[in-house]
User: Which sequence fits this backbone?
C-alpha cells in the first residue's frame, strides 16, 4: 500500500489540531520519513512538523489518534514558564510616584496639574491638560541598525579610505563609520473597559501624540481588539480622537484582557508588530476572563517584544498593591510597572520608553 | 552513519549520551542536510551536542555566538584593512612611480586580505559542524541574513564572487527561547526540544563524565537534582549543575550525599539565593528523599 496519502493526511489532521505545518514542512516530513523508515515515523514527524514546545502535546495526541498505538515516549510535559526575577520593589521603585502626588510647596499651577490624577479634573482643567499633553517630549527608543553609516568616531571605513587613497596615494583623511541607530517600534495597547473610562480620553490623546512622533501601533483592548493606528494618523487631535471613538465599538464595556491580548498576538504581534518593539499596556488589571490565560499571553508577549511596560493608573497611589487577578498573573512577565494616572506619570512613561 | 543508532553509538564514543529522539534528530540533520534547531532549558546539552557531533564526525567545530546587534562583518567576513594598506605601500616601494591604480586596487581585494568570520569559514571548511549559539539573542535582520546563507550554503562577495560549500556543513542552532525566532528560519530547520535527561541517563552521564564517582553517589545526586527540578525554582539545575555538584562532593572526599554534605555544597547546584532559601526551608530531608 502506498503510505503517501496516510502521511499527508496525518499532516492535515495535525494542521486541524492547531500545529502550523505548511507544505514545505510536509515535504520535509516525507523526506525524513523516507530517510528513517516507518518504524521511526514518530520522530520523523516531530522533528519536521513541530516548531515550538507548545506543538509537542498536540503532536503526540494527533499521532496517537491517527496512527493508533502508543507514542514512543510519554507525552512531553507542558513547559512551565520560568518566572523572571522581578520584584514589585524593582518594578515600581525608581518611579516613586506615590510620594510625588503631594504638590510641592510653592509649585506653580501647571506643576500641580501635572501631578493630579486625571480622573478627578474639572472641565477647565481638562482643557488645560490637553494643551499640556501636546507639549510632552516624545522621542522614540533606538535600536542598532543593520547598515553602518559614516561617523566622526568609530572604526575606519576601509572602503572609503582606500577610495580616497587612489587619488593621492596617501590616507589623507581617515573616514570612519559605525553602526547606525534606527527608531524602535512602539506598540500601545489601551484598555478601554468601564473601569478605565476616566482615563480613556487622556490616554488616547497621549497615544495620538506618540503616534505622530515615532513609529507606533495603537490598539484598544476591551471585550474585543481594535486597531486605531490608522485613525490616529491625522494631524488634528480632535479629528483623530473622533475617528478613534467611532472605530471602537466596546468603549466602557467589560474586559477580557487575556483573550484580546491573544487576538492581538495571533493577528498582529507574532507576525511582526510586537517583534523587538517596546510594548506599553495601559490597564488597571481587572480581568473578567481567566487570569491564567492572561499570564500565558503576557509571557508570549514578553518573548516577542524588546520591553513590556505596564502603565496602571492605580499604581500611582501610595497604598497600591498589584493583587488584581489580571495584573498578578502578568506581573512576572513585565519589565516595568509604572503609573499612568497623571501628566507627570505619562512624562515618566515616555522617558522610560525612550530609555528602553 | 546509516541510522540513528549509529549516531547514538558514535556520540557515545565521544562521551555524549543522546536519547533516541536526539540521535534521530542528529541523524536526520546529517542525512537530509538540514540545519538542526535545538531549544530547551539551559543546561540540557544543546551546545554540547554540536561539539560532540563534530568529534563524532571527526570534522572541525565552528562556533558563532550571537548577540544583540551582531552584523555581517562579525558573522560572515571583513576586509583586513591594515594589511591592505601595508600591501599598497609595499607595491609603491617596489615600483616607485609605475603603479597602476586599477591594478593596485584589484590586488587589494583578493582572498588573502579577506578575514573569514565563522559563517564564511564554515562554508570554506565544510565538511564541518557550524554551531550558531543562542540565535534568540540576535536581531530580526540577522535572522533574515542567516536564512539567506543557510538556504543556499553559499554567499556572494561582490569583489571576489561566490563562495559555495562543497558539501553542506551540519548546522546546529540553539535558542533559550528568550525571544520567538521567526518562523521562516525555523521552517528550514529540524526542530528538536531537549528535555532534562531521565534518571538512568543522568546517572550514566555522571558516571561517564566523572569516572571516579560511585554508582551510589551518582544515583543519590541525580535523584536529588530531579527533586530540585520538580520544585518551583527560579533556575532549575541543568546537567552542567549536576556534574558541578558531584565534582564538589568528590573534591570534599564524600562518597555519600547526606544532609550536611548537601548543605555545604548547595551553592554548586543552586545559583540564586531565593532558591537556596526555599530548599533549606523545605528541609534537607525532603531534598534527599528521606
Assistant:
Amino acid at each position: 500500500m502506498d503510505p503517501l496519502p496516510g502521511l499527508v493526511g496525518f499532516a492535515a489532521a495535525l494542521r486541524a489540531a492547531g500545529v502550523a505545518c505548511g507544505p514545505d514542512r510536509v515535504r520535509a516530513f516525507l523526506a525524513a520519513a523516507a530517510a528513517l523508515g516507518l518504524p521511526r515515523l514518530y520522530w520523523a514527524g516531530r522533528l519536521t512538523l513541530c516548531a515550538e514546545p507548545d506543538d509537542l502535546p498536540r503532536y503526540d495526541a494527533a499521532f496517537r489518534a491517527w496512527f493508533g498505538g502508543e507514542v514512543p515516549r510519554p507525552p512531553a510535559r507542558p513547559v512551565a514558564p520560568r518566572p523572571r526575577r522581578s520584584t514589585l520593589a524593582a518594578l515600581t521603585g525608581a518611579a516613586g510616584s506615590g510620594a510625588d502626588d503631594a504638590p510641592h510647596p510653592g509649585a506653580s499651577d501647571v506643576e500641580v496639574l501635572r501631578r493630579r490624577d486625571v480622573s478627578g479634573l474639572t472641565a477647565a482643567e481638562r482643557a488645560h491638560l490637553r494643551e499640556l499633553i501636546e507639549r510632552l517630549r516624545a522621542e522614540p527608543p533606538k535600536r542598532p541598525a543593520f547598515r553602518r553609516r559614516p561617523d566622526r568616531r568609530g572604526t575606519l571605513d576601509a572602503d572609503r579610505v582606500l577610495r580616497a587613497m587612489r587619488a593621492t596615494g596617501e590616507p589623507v583623511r581617515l573616514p570612519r563609520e559605525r553602526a547606525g541607530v534606527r527608531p524602535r517600534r512602539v506598540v500601545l495597547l489601551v484598555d478601554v473597559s468601564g473601569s478605565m473610562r476616566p482615563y480613556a480620553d487622556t490616554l488616547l490623546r497621549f497615544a495620538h501624540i506618540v503616534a505622530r512622533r515615532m513609529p507606533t501601533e495603537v490598539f484598544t483592548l476591551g471585550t474585543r481588539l481594535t486597531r486605531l493606528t490608522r485613525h490616529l494618523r491625522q494631524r488634528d487631535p480632535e479629528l483623530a480622537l473622533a475617528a478613534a471613538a467611532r472605530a471602537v465599538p466596546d468603549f466602557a464595556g467589560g474586559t477580557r484582557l487575556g483573550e484580546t491580548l491573544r487576538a492581538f498576538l495571533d493577528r498582529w504581534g507574532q507576525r511582526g508588530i510586537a517583534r523587538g518593539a517596546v510594548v506599553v499596556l495601559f490597564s488597571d488589571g481587572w480581568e473578567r476572563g481567566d487570569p491564567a490565560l492572561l499570564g500565558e499571553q503576557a509571557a508570549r508577549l514578553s518573548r516577542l517584544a524588546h520591553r513590556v511596560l505596564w502603565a496602571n493608573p492605580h499604581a500611582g497611589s501610595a497604598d497600591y498593591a498589584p493583587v488584581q487577578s489580571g495584573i498578578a498573573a502578568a506581573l512576572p512577565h513585565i519589565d516595568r510597572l509604572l503609573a499612568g494616572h497623571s501628566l507627570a506619570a505619562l512624562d515618566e512613561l515616555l522617558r522610560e520608553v525612550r530609555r528602553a | 552513519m546509516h541510522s540513528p543508532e549509529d549516531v547514538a553509538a558514535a556520540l557515545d564514543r565521544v562521551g555524549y549520551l543522546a536519547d533516541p529522539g536526539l540521535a534521530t534528530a542528529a541523524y536526520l540533520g546529517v542525512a537530509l542536510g538540514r540545519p538542526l534547531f535545538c531549544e530547551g532549558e539551559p543546561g540540557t546539552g544543546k551546545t554540547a551536542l554540536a561539539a560532540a557531533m563534530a568529534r563524532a564526525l571527526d570534522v572541525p567545530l565552528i562556533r558563532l555566538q550571537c548577540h544583540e546587534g551582531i552584523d555581517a562583518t562579525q558573522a560572515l567576513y571583513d576586509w583586513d584593512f591594515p594589511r591592505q594598506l601595508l600591501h599598497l605601500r609595499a607595491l609603491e616601494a617596489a615600483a616607485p612611480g609605475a603603479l597602476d591604480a586599477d591594478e593596485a586596487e584589484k590586488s587589494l581585494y583578493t582572498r588573502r586580505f579577506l578575514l573569514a568570520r565563522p559563517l564564511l569559514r564554515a562554508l570554506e571548511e565544510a565538511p564541518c559542524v557550524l554551531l550558531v549559539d543562542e540565535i534568540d539573542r540576535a536581531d530580526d535582520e540577522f535572522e533574515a541574513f542567516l536564512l539567506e546563507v543557510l538556504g543556499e550554503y553559499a554567499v556572494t562577495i561582490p569583489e571576489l564572487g561566490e563562495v559555495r560549500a562543497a558539501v553542506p556543513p551540519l548546522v546546529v542552532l540553539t535558542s533559550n527561547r528568550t525571544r520567538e525566532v521567526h518562523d521562516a528560519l525555523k521552517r528550514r530547520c529540524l526542530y528538536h526540544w531537549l528535555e532534562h535527561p531521565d534518571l538512568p541517563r543522568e546517572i550514566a552521564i555522571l558516571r561517564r563524565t566523572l569516572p571516579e564517582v560511585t554508582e551510589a553517589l551518582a544515583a543519590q545526586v541525580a535523584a536529588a537534582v530531579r527533586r530540585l527540578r520538580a520544585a518551583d525554582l527560579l533556575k532549575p539545575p541543568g546537567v552542567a549543575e549536576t556534574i558541578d555538584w558531584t565534582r564538589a562532593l568528590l573534591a570534599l572526599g564524600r562518597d555519600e550525599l547526606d544532609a550536611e554534605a548537601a548543605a555545604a555544597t548547595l551553592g554548586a547546584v543552586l545559583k540564586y539565593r531565593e532558591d537556596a532559601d526555599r530548599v533549606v526551608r523545605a528541609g534537607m530531608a525532603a531534598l534527599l528523599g528521606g
